[in-house]
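Morning. Coffee machine broken again, so started the prediction first thing and wrote up yesterday's gels while waiting. Chain of 56 residues, entered below exactly as on the submission form.
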Amino acid sequence: MSTAQLAEKYIATGEATQQDIERCYEFAEDPHAWAIYYSTVGVSAKQANSKVIGHG
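Came back before lunch.
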């Protein structure tokens, strides 16, 4: 989801302000700036009566 879609939720946390959101938009529109959006997922699994088979 984009900042625009999550703006109200970001502000509701108290960790971001409307000004932060607006600055994000300015950054996104600046042709001299770039960013990489990514997500990291870690998984750990254990079969019954066995050792951990994976982790992240």
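The chain has two helices and two strands. Going to sketch it on the whiteboard this afternoon.
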